[in-house]
Design a protein that fits this description.
Elements: H1 3-57, H2 87-103, H3 113-132, H4 137-161, H5 169-193, H6 198-204, H7 207-219, H8 276-307, H9 320-339, H10 350-370, H11 376-404, H12 407-417, H13 419-440
Subcellular location: Endomembrane system; Lysosome membrane
Membrane topology: Multi-pass membrane protein
Pfam families: CLN3 (PF02487)
C-alpha cells in the first residue's frame, strides 16, 4: 500500500471516529436534558398525589388519586376551583432552583463538573425516595425541594458544559428537556392509570438518575483537557479588582500593547479566571437575553398555573380533570417540538416571542373573566401554540448567547442566563396565587 492510500485510510478512520463522537455527544446531551428535567416534571404531579393520599388517609376512604392538579373543587362559586391554586406546588418546585441559579454562577466554577453531576444524581435519587416514602406534608415538600435542587444545579452545569463541545449539543439538550415534559407526564400517568400506586411509580423512576450517570460518565466523549475532577482555575478573591471597560458588549475584544482596545477603552482581559467585577459587568450585558426569557416564562406559567384550571367547559365529554390534563400535555408537546427546532430553525429576536406570549396571557385572562370561549378545542390550540413559543424562546436564547459570547466568558454566561426562566416561573407563581383567589371568590 502506498503512502497516499495509507493517509487516505487514516483520514477516513479519523473522520468516522469524529462522527461517532459527535452523535454520542448529541445523544448524551439529549439524555441529560431528559433526565435533568424529569424529576421536576414528575414532582409537580406526584407530590400532589401523595399529599392527596395523606389527606384521604386521615378521613374517609376515597378512590385512588389520578394525575391531576384539579381533583378537589368548589362548585359554590362561578368557577370550578381547587381550594388551593396549583401555583402553590409550583413555587415549592421552583424557588430552590431560582436560589441556586442566582448564586451559583459566582462560585460554581470552583466545583469540578464530575462532583456537580454526582450531587445532581444524589438529589434526584433522594427526591424520588423521600416523596415515595413520605408520611407527612413536610416530607413530601422535602422531596419536591430535592428535585428542584437537582434540576437547578443540573441545568446551569450542563448549559455551561456545552461550551466544551460542538455547538450542536445545544440542540440535543433543548430537545431532551422538551422530551422530559411529555415523557414524564405520560409515563407517570400511564403507570398510575395502569393501577400502580404513586409510591411504586416513584420508585420505578429511580432508573432516571441511573440513566443520567450513564449518559454523563460513559456516553459523552470529553475533550482530552476537560477538567472532570479538578476546578477550572483559581477562584477570584472578593468582588474587587479586575479590569472593567467603560462600555463592554457580550463579545470581548483583544487587547493591544498600549492597554487600550479598538475604541480607546481599557482592554478586556482575554485569559485567566473572571473576577466578580467582570462577572457583574457580563451579567449586565446578558440582560437583553435574560429579560425576554423571563417574560416568556412568566406569561406561560401564569397561564398554566393561574388560568388553565379555571377554563372548564361542562358541555365537553371530558371531565374537568381530563381537560386540565390535556392542557398540560399539549403544552408539553408544543415545548418538545419547538425545543427540537434548533436543528432547522433559529429565531434571533426572542423579544417578539415574549410579546406574543404576553398576548396569549392577556387573551386567556379576558377569556376567564368574561367566559367568551365556547369550546375546549380553542383552548387546546392556544395552549399548544403557547408551548411552541416558550420552547423556541428557551433554545434560541442559549444558542445566541453561545454564539455571541467570547471564549473566556461563555461558560459563565450560559450558567448565569439560566436564571431567566426560573425567575419568570417564580414570579408567575406569586402572581397566580392571588389571581386564583380572586376568580374563585366571584
Amino acid at each position: 500500500m502506498d503512502q497516499n492510500s495509507l493517509n487516505g485510510d487514516l483520514r477516513q478512520a479519523t473522520g468516522s471516529q469524529g462522527r461517532v463522537a459527535h452523535w454520542r455527544n448529541v445523544v448524551g446531551f439529549w439524555l441529560l436534558g431528559l433526565c435533568n428535567n424529569f424529576a421536576y416534571v414528575v414532582m409537580l404531579s406526584a407530590a400532589h398525589d401523595i399529599l392527596k393520599q395523606q389527606e384521604t388517609n386521615s378521613t374517609l376512604p376515597t378512590p385512588p388519586p389520578v394525575i391531576s392538579l384539579s381533583q378537589s373543587s368548589n362548585s359554590s362559586g362561578r368557577y370550578d376551583c381547587n381550594p388551593t391554586s396549583t401555583a402553590a406546588v409550583l413555587l415549592a418546585d421552583i424557588l430552590p432552583t431560582l436560589l441556586i441559579k442566582l448564586t451559583a454562577p459566582f462560585f460554581i466554577h470552583a466545583v469540578p463538573y464530575g462532583f456537580r453531576v454526582l450531587v445532581c444524581i444524589a438529589t434526584a435519587t433522594a427526591s424520588f425516595l423521600v416523596a415515595s416514602f413520605s408520611t407527612s406534608v413536610w416530607m413530601s415538600i422535602l422531596g419536591v425541594i430535592f428535585a428542584s435542587v437537582s434540576s437547578g444545579l443540573g441545568e446551569l452545569s450542563f448549559l455551561s458544559l456545552t461550551v466544551y463541545f460542538n455547538r450542536c449539543v445545544l440542540s440535543g439538550w433543548g430537545s431532551g428537556t422538551g422530551g422530559a415534559g411529555v415523557g414524564g407526564a405520560l409515563l407517570y400517568s400511564g403507570l398510575t392509570q395502569a393501577g400502580l400506586t404513586p409510591r411504586i411509580t416513584l420508585l420505578i423512576m429511580l432508573l432516571v438518575p441511573v440513566a443520567m450517570a450513564i449518559s454523563y460518565y460513559f456516553l459523552l466523549v470529553f475533550p482530552p483537557s476537560f477538567p472532570q475532577w479538578s476546578s477550572r482555575g483559581r477562584v477570584p478573591v472578593g468582588c474587587v479588582g479586575g479590569t472593567t471597560p467603560e462600555h463592554r458588549p457580550l463579545m470581548e475584544e483583544e487587547g493591544h500593547e498600549d492597554g487600550l482596545d479598538t475604541r480607546g477603552s481599557p482592554a478586556v482581559k482575554t485569559t485567566g479566571a473572571l473576577s466578580c467585577t467582570e462577572k457583574l459587568v457580563i451579567l449586565k450585558g446578558l440582560m437583553r437575553f435574560i429579560v425576554p426569557l423571563a417574560v416568556v416564562y412568566f406569561a406561560e406559567y401564569f397561564i398554566n398555573q393561574g388560568l388553565l384550571e379555571l377554563l372548564f367547559f361542562p358541555e365537553s365529554a371530558l371531565s374537568h380533570a381530563e381537560q386540565y390534563r390535556w392542557y398540560q400535555t399539549l403544552y408539553q408537546i408544543g415545548v418538545l417540538v419547538s425545543r427540537s427546532s434548533l436543528f432547522c430553525l433559529k429565531i434571533r429576536c426572542v423579544g417578539v416571542l415574549s410579546a406574543l406570549q404576553c398576548v396569549n396571557a392577556l387573551l386567556l385572562t379576558l377569556a376567564v373573566y368574561y367566559s367568551v370561549l365556547t369550546s375546549v378545542w380553542i383552548v387546546f390550540a392556544i395552549v399548544l401554540y403557547e408551548g411552541l413559543l416558550g420552547g423556541a424562546a428557551y433554545v434560541n436564547t442559549y444558542y445566541f448567547i453561545s454564539t455571541e459570547s467570547a471564549d473566556r466568558e461563555r461558560e459563565f454566561s450560559m450558567a448565569a442566563a439560566s436564571v431567566g426562566d426560573s425567575l419568570g416561573i417564580a414570579l408567575s407563581g406569586a402572581a397566580a396565587l392571588p389571581t386564583h383567589t380572586y376568580f374563585c371568590s366571584l
